[in-house]
């Protein structure tokens, strides 16, 4: 993380706030108004950074590619990088057995939030020899406890359920302020236990892991919280503002007990602004290569984007090089199968810039005939984050084939000015 912060500072992309700032509303409000990474030097005497990966420009810099090549790059990388176990870590510079989560700059973001939330904690779990790393929102219950939103049927949920069914505590470690590539990899949908291998492949060098006192192996980071998920204990979790910018439901969720805190000297806490650009990109971008690869099975795909207006989660634009009639509709179905939370998808030709929504709207306006090119699929599984979804999680999905009719291609040729 510190290397990445130094790089941001060197490139003039880091905003630094030196005056004291409150972790209750004030720091999140500043982050919301700041278009790039922002480093706070004094939140109750602590350092914190937000908006670390707040735009595709930062992602492109991290991956060493142009912005429009991010998804192609991600779709080509296999989770087979090298992971190395080491005995020591700068994360262990300070070890605290007297746990007090209130001393960390954990922020309260919105007025109706249930309380302070850890939003960038990579929760590392291991059970029956299988490891998983994923970001979960974590509500601070008191000095030593957190409530974790675990979503079925994802790996952390399944591991906790298996342990709980046997009455066993699930050991975990929560990683804060790791290398941004590691943080990004933890949001992806790679096979269980491959998140750190994927991070190593993405950054082109091994990821080092060290072992916590409870046996969980984690990457170097600014802060690590050791503990376990209780097999039975549950508390109310929420309200919390999720990616749509609306409050999610209050649910009974499992409780994490923190038993030890490890951190670097003068640690830098990492927070993600709920519904902010970093939250949207971290939620959405990992699904784009899944859609890309799925569509490549049915036609020639050029690029994919989950749009910011669609919360980087519910709306996709897929760019294809159309080969035959029907390719557009096949691409729609492949996209929905690859990302089951997807609600609306537009498929366009390769002469449409999918990052320019005016261009996408042009394709819809000039290449769509409603009774032929719009697919409506009712009563299918959607996203629990969709405010318009049914209580049982079902919704209606819409696919728009905004590609040219091949036999009438001359009718769709865009005019060009002479050189």
TrEMBL record:
GO terms for cellular component: cytoplasm. Its EC number is 4.1.1.126. Residues 88-277 form the 3-octaprenyl-4-hydroxybenzoate carboxy-lyase-like Rift-related domain. GO terms for molecular function: carboxy-lyase activity. Keywords: Decarboxylase, Flavoprotein, FMN, Isoprene biosynthesis, Lyase, Manganese. Pathway: Isoprenoid biosynthesis; isopentenyl diphosphate biosynthesis via mevalonate pathway. It is an enzyme of class 4 (lyase). It catalyses: (2E)-3-methyl-5-phosphooxypent-2-enoate + H(+) = isopentenyl phosphate + CO2. Catalyzes the conversion of trans-anhydromevalonate 5-phosphate (tAHMP) into isopentenyl phosphate. Involved in the archaeal mevalonate (MVA) pathway, which provides fundamental precursors for isoprenoid biosynthesis, such as isopentenyl diphosphate (IPP) and dimethylallyl diphosphate (DMAPP). This is Anhydromevalonate phosphate decarboxylase. The lineage of its organism: Archaea, Methanobacteriati, Methanobacteriota, Stenosarchaea group, Methanomicrobia.
